[in-house]
What does this fold into?
Amino acid sequence: MSQERRKRQQKREGREQPNPNRTRYIMIAIVIIIAFAAAYYFLWYKHTSRVDAFAKCLTAKQAKMYGAFWCPHCEEQKEKFGSSFQYAPYIECGIKGSKGIEPVCTQAGIKRFPTWIFADGTRVEGEHELDFLGQETGCSLP
It folds into this structure.
């Protein structure tokens, strides 16, 4: 049986030989995807751990952010921390299902959201950059 005839028969039976170049291109594509995924992960991890440390420092320096769940500026402030906001010193003032304010916020004299109060009693209202918060508390963004 000739090679030509053998190839046609394999093709009919669905036993066609895989193209070695195709396999090679697939392997190269997989390696490239893995390299990009690893680079993205490590860059994201470095940024996240940096902001995690900053948020923990704010807590250690006794800074407090008072905010409300319905406040758009509070949401924007939280977004600056990203997933690291879980470590930030946050006090929720809004009461769900009510237009009221939590007593802890009333006692602290909070009138606008967000309000940051620092350990020395200094208070600033509104959304602020992380650099500003670092200057006020002595926490650094590495």
The longest strand covers residues 64-67. The two ends are 72 Å apart (CA to CA). The mean pLDDT is 87. The helical segments are 3-12, 20-60, 72-81, 103-107, 130-137.
